[in-house]
Design brief:
With 417 residues, the protein is α+β, with helices and mostly antiparallel strands. It has two domains: 149 residues, Creatinase/prolidase N-terminal domain (Creatine Amidinohydrolase, Chain A, domain 1); 255 residues, Creatine Amidinohydrolase (Alpha-Beta Complex), CATH 3.90.230. The chain is built from eleven helices and 19 strands. The strands form six sheets. The protein has a six-stranded mixed β-sheet with strand order 4-3-2-1-5-6. Strands 10-11-13-19 form a four-stranded mixed β-sheet, covered by helices on one side. A hairpin with a 5-residue loop joins strand 17 and strand 18. Helix 4 packs across helix 5, helix 8 packs across helix 9 and helix 10 runs antiparallel to helix 11. The radius of gyration is 25 Å and the shape is elongated. It starts with a helix and ends in an 8-residue tail after the last strand.
């Protein structure tokens, strides 16, 4: 949690941190400022002290909403700095950042660097600052083990409520998509039709999903998946917009919207087959649902997340499917890890891969996904079930947005053929 940040900085041997970029769609900056329309900001935090937000004058009101100490860039006379730098803007920017660091009492030590800016521009800036302030060592952390990922790993109840609200929006939109699909007319060749009698495509459904999410004040910073047939068998295929929606083909609908402005995500997947399902498809879906249910029954407090991925692999291998347990980079069968944390990033700690450290556990306060799946693109089918779960302070597992697990969706205007 945010209150752990100083302790995590100390554990990672960081004396200070610096975050570059906008307050929106920039998880480290959003985490410390609460978001808002603040562009090209710089945030500096010395360990044990409050963060300071540096910003443009035009955004002073938005910056003030953060509740942090705010310092406008105009505090530092850029014209004078540019004159001293002999019109070298890169050096003038470095001199200004040096002054900002001094403003926060950072003149030496290890400084972690975060945020969303052009890598080359930041690298050049920091190299110049390091020459100006030799006592500072700028540090780049591995994403999975960074201080922000570790702090964000557990959520307080306020954060969980925001994720829960996104779950409500998510499942509401999923329900709208289901209602729309099942109410469509069906052509003789089992293709769904739009209101004007033309064939319904994946692209048409994508457009409705985007509209319905936007109408509810959410957005898709990381996209979403609505894929049918072969594409449903490729886990991260978003779906070919020209594909027709047909009965009896598996549809993987993986939807992960976030609060507008780069806030908290929700992650959710259902697999559908409209009208009917082939026997093999029904059997594979049943297997995915069986292990999904078994996992829910077995999740336990403080167990390493990877142990449940291993359990999932062992189950699927007992059914004859390839998994990462004994196949390197499988292209069919169970091809990905079980789940991940969810928050300001769509993928956060704890992760569940087989090589993940034992420290990534189902501790109280984590919000995770459970998403077993099977994928057979050459058979034209794929399956995934996913819910977002909260490990409550009492250690119990709670699904943050309940929704039915129906596989075959009956069509309202189709009598069977």
């Amino acid at each position: 949690m945010k209150s752990d940040l100083d302790a995590i900085m100390q554990a990672n041997s960081l004396d200070a941190l610096i975050v570059f970029g906008n307050a929106e769609h920039n998880p480290p900056m959003y985490y410390l400022t609460g978001g808002g329309h603040v562009s090209h900001a710089t945030l500096i935090k010395k360990r044990g002290e409050a963060a300071v937000l540096f910003h443009g004058d035009m955004e002073r009101d938005e910056a003030a909403k953060s509740g942090l100490k705010c310092v406008p860039y105009s505090r530092f006379d850029y014209d004078e700095l540019l004159k001293r730098a002999n019109a070298d803007h890169g050096l003038a920017n470095a001199m200004r950042l040096e002054l900002m660091l001094k403003e926060c009492g950072v003149t030496a030590g290890r400084v972690g660097v975060y945020g969303t800016y052009d890598v080359g521009a930041v690298f050049g800036l920091l190299m110049r600052v390091q020459k100006l302030v030799p006592g500072i060592e700028f540090v780049g952390e591995r994403s999975e083990g960074s201080i922000f990922m570790k702090a964000m790993e557990t959520k307080d109840e306020r954060e969980v409520e925001r994720i829960r609200r996104m779950g409500k929006i998510t499942t509401e939109v999923v329900g709208l998509v289901r209602e729309y699909l099942t109410s469509c007319d069906v052509r003789e060749d089992e293709v769904l039709l739009k209101e004007d009698g033309t064939p319904l495509t994946v692209g048409d459904v994508h457009s409705k999903i985007r509209l319905w999410i936007a109408e509810r004040g959410a957005e898709f910073p990381s996209g979403f998946i609505f894929a049918i047939g072969r594409d449903a068998g490729v886990p991260h295929s978003s779906g070919n917009p020209s594909d027709l929606i047909q009965l009896g083909k598996t549809i993987v609908f993986d939807i992960y919207p976030a609060e507008a402005g780069g806030g908290y995500y929700y992650d959710f997947t259902r697999t559908w087959s409209l009208g009917y399902a082939a026997p093999e498809a029904q059997e594979l879906y049943n297997q995915v649902k069986e292990i999904f249910d078994r996992l829910l029954e077995n999740f336990d407090l403080n167990v390493p997340f990877k142990e449940y991925h291993r359990m999932t692999c062992e189950y699927f291998e007992s059914k004859g499917h390839k998994t990462q347990l004994n196949t390197k980079a499988p292209q069919e069968g169970y091809v990905h890890s079980l789940g991940h944390g969810v928050g300001l990033n769509i993928h956060e700690r704890p992760f569940s891969g087989l090589q993940t450290g034992d420290d990534q556990r189902l501790k109280a306060g984590v919000v995770i996904t459970s998403e077993p799946g099977l994928y057979y693109p050459e058979k034209g089918m794929g399956f995934r079930i996913e819910d977002t779960l909260w490990v409550r302070p009492d250690g119990k597992i709670e699904i943050l947005a309940e929704y039915p697990y129906d596989f075959v969706l009956p069509m309202k205007k189709w009598q069977g053929g």
